[in-house]
Every structure is written in C-alpha cells, then in structure tokens.
Amino acid sequence: MKKLTRIRKQCAVAAAVLLAVTATVPVPAAEAVAVQSQQQIFGPFGLVKETAAADADTAGGLQQPPAGTDSAQGQAVAEPEITEESIDAYFDDSVMVGDSIMLGFRNYAMRRQDTWLSRLKFLSAGSYSTSHALEPVTQKSLHPMYAGQKRQIWDSIALMGAKKVFLLLGMNDLNISGIEGTCENYKAIAANIKALSPDAEIHLISMTYVLHGKAKGKLNNDNIRVFNEELRKLAADNGWGYVDLAPHLADAGGDLAAVYCSDSFVHQTPEAYDVWCAVLREYAKEKLKAAVLPAPSDEALQPSESLGAQK
To answer: Is pTM beyond 0.85 here?
Structure first.
C-alpha cells in the first residue's frame, strides 16, 4: 500500500514538472496550429467533436474553397472590370441579319449614329426569311442590298469582313417551313457563312412574340417559344452564341407587350429597341467576362461538358 502511494506521488511530481516545462518552451506558430487542431479532436478523456475539416472528410469529401476562388489554386479570382468602352468595342465588325423586325432596329440605329450603334452593320429586308436566304439572287428576290446590289448574305458578310454575325429570322418561316424546317435552314445559312468567313462568330437571337390575340396560323407564341428552345439547343450544339431577347419584350402573359408593339401585330416601337440595346450590351458584357476569367481546370470538367469554340 505504501509502495503504491509513493508511485502515485512520483507520477504527480513528474506531471507537474512536464507541465511547467511545456508552458515555458516557445512553440512555433505552425506547430501551435497543429496542436490546437489536435486538441479540438482529442480531449483529455479521448475523442471529442471533430473539427470542420474532419466533418467534411467524414461526409465524403474535402472542404471546397470559398466562393470567388480558383478551385485549382484556392486563390481569390477578382471579378473582371468591363468598361462601357470595351462593351462598345465588342460590336466592332458586327452585322445584324434579319427581317422587318431587324429592319426596324436598323432604322432606330440610323437615328442614333452618335452612339455605339454606329458600329453596327445591317443586312435586313422586309418579309425576309430563312427560305428566301437560301434562294438564288434574282431581280425579284428579297436578298438584302450591300454595296449597291443584292447578294447572298454570306457573300455580303465576307465582303464586309464581319467577325460577329447576329441572326434574327424565322418570323416569316413558321407558316411555311415549320419549326424543324426553319432550324434546318438556319444550319444551312450558318454553314454557308462559315464557308466564306471561317473566323466569324455566329450569334442567334430569339424570335420575338406576337401581340396577344394576333396569332396567324403557326405563327403563335406557343410555337415561338418551342422554336426559341430549339434555337437555344442549336446554338449550344454548335458553339454559337444565343441572345435571349424575347422574354425581355413580353408581358405577364408571355405575349409581346402592348407598349412595345407598333402595329397591333409583331413590329416594334423605339421603346422596344431601347430594350434591345440593353439586352445586347448585357450579352456583350457577359461574353467579355467569360473571355478574361480563368478557364476551369481539367479536374473540374465533366466528360460530357463541351469546350467547343465557334464552329
């Protein structure tokens, strides 16, 4: 019994000496962090609540870097500053191709040549369609004029050296070619453009809506919405851009808002083209941001994701 008491006293003295020595010896910062982390996991009586990092590991994965960081490096990624001047410059060497809806935008732009709109070129004609675009040029054909004569739009695009082509067609096609046929025509038009201007980017603009109650046959807003979804898929599949303009001009019922309609049908007011400007500039801003942000690391990409550039 006395021997046991003596051993206990010796252990107590040894523990006191060890504690005193530990308190007086400086611990490097890195080691202090490690010690603190270990104490968070192991208390004096064994395993206690794990740290956040341990919780994440137990849940089946490592902690993710905070939002706004590069996932590969764990470094903060600053939001790129896009200036108004850089947005203006985005539209250099751009051409807008379309029917009478686009023709209205051309007329709007021509009255505002002291703005960024002066940078735009236009190939547009009343009643123009994807079907008309694929027809031969004749005296009676509806091909837009460029440099004093009618031409196929891909010929005009090549002559003007356009680098970005914005297409808004289909309004005059749905009752003739239907949704599928119009999409096939889009593919053919884009292929012809790329054949002569391989570096040109293709950007599709969603078809805008009809005023409530003014549908004509297949030209109705339900079909337009289906068509626009097909355009979106077409753009995604080919690495083209897609400008989703139509919803910005719609009322609560999904029709062309009366305030934006000039003729009780489909044509549009200057207020509508004000919206066009805002949508196009926001689109340009997002494209410029995407161009300067770091590309995702190989590890972050899923096999099904596409890195396709303009095709």
So the answer is: no
